[in-house]
Amino acid sequence: LIADQTVTIAVQVNGKLRSTINVVINSPVDELKKIAVDAISDKIDRKDVLAILEKEQENGLLVGIIVQIGGQTPLKLAKVLNERGFKILGTSFDSIDLAEDRMRFKDLALRLNLKQPENSICHSVEEAFSCIEKVEFPLLVRPSYVLGGQSMSIKYNIESFKEYVLNQTKIFEHGPLLIDRFLVNAVEVDVDAVCDGENVFIAAIMEHIEEAGIHSGDSTCSMPTNTLDNEIIKEIKSQTTKIARALRVIGLMNIQFAVQENNIYVLEVNLRASRTIPFISKVINIPVAKLATQVAVFPFTRFPGADILLGPEMKSTGEVMGIDSSFEAALAKAHMAAGYKLPMEGAALISVKDDDKESILPIAQMLNKLGFEIYATKGTALYLNNNSIVAKAVNKVREGRPHIVDMLKDGKINLVINTSKGIKSVPDSKDIRRTAILQNIAYSTTTSGSKALVLAIQYIKN
């Protein structure tokens, strides 16, 4: 099962076999059209795949099936393919199941002396309320068998958790609810590697710019890493090799780690090609001294009701890459390639949750030095002024006019930094984020992303 973004692998396979069957979901490209594409559909289900394979088996042409390419969907078909006796090429089904099954992988991690966040598995609403006694808040909650982080959420207290579970009762129809302790202020790291069962080639270690908790498909990432020290990198390589060998991987794999105060946690292991493979393929063919930065591309202007606040549920629909000899330069290129208009002067709005007020200070200082005038909602303005950064207070929408959305619409704000948390705060600030998008104003919804954005502006301006 080969997706359209992995044409290279399709071509490679086709050169060694008589023909290949590529089940492609969405927009087949010209190169794939040349390689005997026998089934193309917007919605491919299990019955369609089995029908194709059984027909090929009848003709005596079926050598095996590749499930490592094309995202999570082919991996989820691996069980039924194995039960029907089809040969899975590369990593075995047992290894795939070991990585996908929460309890089996937890046992493996303990045997390998690897750390994971505290976690629990719940099969009912009643069990969910019991499970949270075993795991500390904040919690990352996610249903089983979802794509793109759908319905995943971070819950900071018992009230928001109860509301989530009671409103999402259907999630238990498709499998258990997975609960993890959310690692606050952790750095997320993606590793892509190839293994032949024993030898492991680590193609890339990428550091996410946004903190852990932002879906990997939405996060900006840097290769090589930007803040991790050599000892952490060395240990990540060691753990990647351990996991690949223990799972007897033959082919591609992706591991997501989180680094918190020099502790390395294994978040997820995917025995397949990740969405970063095309990005890495370009980067590793350039001089080692160069840096590449990947930025997610969001379609928010096409979906007027969507909120741009990032979290564990994926929202982006594409990505771009910037390559240069410095992190800041690569970042600036990536932002420009994504179509973001970076302001060189004017006014910046800062409105952040209490947890982010301390970390926003150096960013506000950078904006001051760059000559930006700073506006802020009342709580943030008070904090900034108390810390020697001049900020003019403005009203939130519910506080009456003139308010911040009026200023955005009138073209008086050139940059928006807005982080939010809580049942009341998130919807209150949604109008700020939506207006920024509709007015094509540069924005960020995380402090780490804000720092990267300001560094890019600083690089261009200087």
UniProtKB/TrEMBL annotation:
<feature type="domain" description="ATP-grasp">
    <location>
        <begin position="106"/>
        <end position="297"/>
    </location>
</feature>
<dbReference type="InterPro" id="IPR011761">
    <property type="entry name" value="ATP-grasp"/>
</dbReference>
<keyword id="KW-0677">Repeat</keyword>
<dbReference type="GO" id="GO:0004087">
    <property type="term" value="F:carbamoyl-phosphate synthase (ammonia) activity"/>
</dbReference>
<protein>
    <submittedName>
        <fullName>ATP-grasp fold, subdomain 1,Carbamoyl-phosphate synthase large chain, methylglyoxal synthase-like</fullName>
    </submittedName>
</protein>
<dbReference type="InterPro" id="IPR016185">
    <property type="entry name" value="PreATP-grasp_dom_sf"/>
</dbReference>
<keyword id="KW-0665">Pyrimidine biosynthesis</keyword>
<dbReference type="GO" id="GO:0006526">
    <property type="term" value="P:L-arginine biosynthetic process"/>
</dbReference>
<keyword id="KW-0547">Nucleotide-binding</keyword>
<keyword id="KW-0028">Amino-acid biosynthesis</keyword>
<keyword id="KW-0479">Metal-binding</keyword>
<comment type="pathway">
    <text>Amino-acid biosynthesis; L-arginine biosynthesis; carbamoyl phosphate from bicarbonate: step 1/1.</text>
</comment>
<keyword id="KW-0464">Manganese</keyword>
<dbReference type="InterPro" id="IPR005483">
    <property type="entry name" value="CPSase_dom"/>
</dbReference>
<keyword id="KW-0067">ATP-binding</keyword>
<dbReference type="InterPro" id="IPR005479">
    <property type="entry name" value="CPAse_ATP-bd"/>
</dbReference>
<feature type="domain" description="MGS-like">
    <location>
        <begin position="340"/>
        <end position="462"/>
    </location>
</feature>
<dbReference type="Pfam" id="PF02142">
    <property type="entry name" value="MGS"/>
</dbReference>
<dbReference type="Pfam" id="PF02786">
    <property type="entry name" value="CPSase_L_D2"/>
</dbReference>
<dbReference type="Pfam" id="PF25596">
    <property type="entry name" value="CPSase_L_D1"/>
</dbReference>
<dbReference type="GO" id="GO:0044205">
    <property type="term" value="P:'de novo' UMP biosynthetic process"/>
</dbReference>
<comment type="similarity">
    <text>Belongs to the CarB family.</text>
</comment>
<dbReference type="GO" id="GO:0006541">
    <property type="term" value="P:glutamine metabolic process"/>
</dbReference>
<keyword id="KW-0436">Ligase</keyword>
<dbReference type="GO" id="GO:0046872">
    <property type="term" value="F:metal ion binding"/>
</dbReference>
<keyword id="KW-0055">Arginine biosynthesis</keyword>
<dbReference type="InterPro" id="IPR058047">
    <property type="entry name" value="CPSase_preATP-grasp"/>
</dbReference>
<dbReference type="InterPro" id="IPR033937">
    <property type="entry name" value="MGS_CPS_CarB"/>
</dbReference>
<dbReference type="GO" id="GO:0005524">
    <property type="term" value="F:ATP binding"/>
</dbReference>
<dbReference type="GO" id="GO:0005737">
    <property type="term" value="C:cytoplasm"/>
</dbReference>
<keyword id="KW-0460">Magnesium</keyword>
<dbReference type="InterPro" id="IPR036914">
    <property type="entry name" value="MGS-like_dom_sf"/>
</dbReference>
<dbReference type="InterPro" id="IPR011607">
    <property type="entry name" value="MGS-like_dom"/>
</dbReference>
<dbReference type="GO" id="GO:0004088">
    <property type="term" value="F:carbamoyl-phosphate synthase (glutamine-hydrolyzing) activity"/>
</dbReference>
